[in-house]
Write a structure and sequence with these properties.
By secondary structure, this protein is mainly alpha-helical. It folds into 2 domains: 27 residues, no CATH class; 108 residues, Orthogonal Bundle (Arc Repressor Mutant, subunit A). The chain is 68% helix and 10% strand. The protein has 8 helices and 3 strands; from the N terminus they run H-H-H-H-E-H-H-E-E-H-H. A 3-stranded antiparallel beta sheet has the order 1-3-2. A hairpin with a 5-residue loop joins strand 2 and strand 3. Helix 4 crosses helix 7. The protein starts with a helix and ends with a helix. The N terminus is likely disordered.
C-alpha cells in the first residue's frame, strides 16, 4: 500500500491526514509519545538496539555527538514507555545492558524506514536547505535596499 493508501485509512475526504490530526489534536498522550519517538536520539537508539542487546558504553560510543546525560535521559524515556528494557549485571563495576522489548520491536521497521529515508535523501535535503538559505539571503538584501 502506498503512502496515500496509508494516509487514507486515517480519515475521509480531501485531507485524510489533516482530518486524523484534527480529530486527535486534543490528545496530549499521542503528542507526547510522537515527540519522544521523533527525537533524533530515540530513533538512533531503537535502530541500534534492533541489532540486539547493547551495553550503555557501547551505545555511547556508537552514537556520535550524544552526551552521557542525553543518552541516559533517552534510554529512561524509552524504558518508561515500555520500548526498551534495562538489565543491570552483578559485576564490579556494574554493567548495564539495554534491549528492545516486544513493544519496541514493533517500532523497528518504521524507525529503520525513517533512518533509511534520511540517508537516501540527505543530498536532496542539503540542496533544498542551501536553495532556501540563498532565497532568504536574497530577500533580506532586497528588504534592506527598500528600507
Amino acid at each position: 500500500m502506498g503512502s496515500r493508501g496509508k494516509a487514507a485509512r486515517f480519515g475521509t475526504g480531501n485531507r485524510p491526514c489533516a482530518k486524523f490530526f484534527d480529530e486527535n489534536r486534543a490528545c496530549p498522550f499521542t503528542r507526547e509519545l510522537l515527540t519522544r519517538l521523533g527525537d533524533k536520539w530515540s530513533v538512533l537508539v531503537i535502530v541500534l538496539l534492533g541489532d540486539g542487546t547493547r551495553r550503555f558504553s557501547e551505545l555511547k560510543r556508537t552514537i556520535e555527538g550524544i552526551s552521557q546525560r542525553m543518552l541516559t535521559l533517552t534510554l529512561r524515556g524509552l524504558e518508561r514507555d515500555g520500548l526498551v528494557a534495562r538489565r543491570v549485571l552483578p559485576t564490579v563495576p556494574p554493567r548495564v545492558e539495554y534491549t528492545l522489548t516486544p513493544l519496541g520491536t514493533t517500532l523497528l521497521d518504521t524507525m529503520l524506514e525513517l533512518a533509511l529515508w534520511a540517508n537516501k535523501n540527505l543530498d536532496k535535503v542539503e540542496r533544498a536547505r542551501a536553495d532556501f538559505d540563498r532565497r532568504e539571503a536574497a530577500e533580506a538584501i532586497q528588504l534592506k535596499r527598500r528600507a
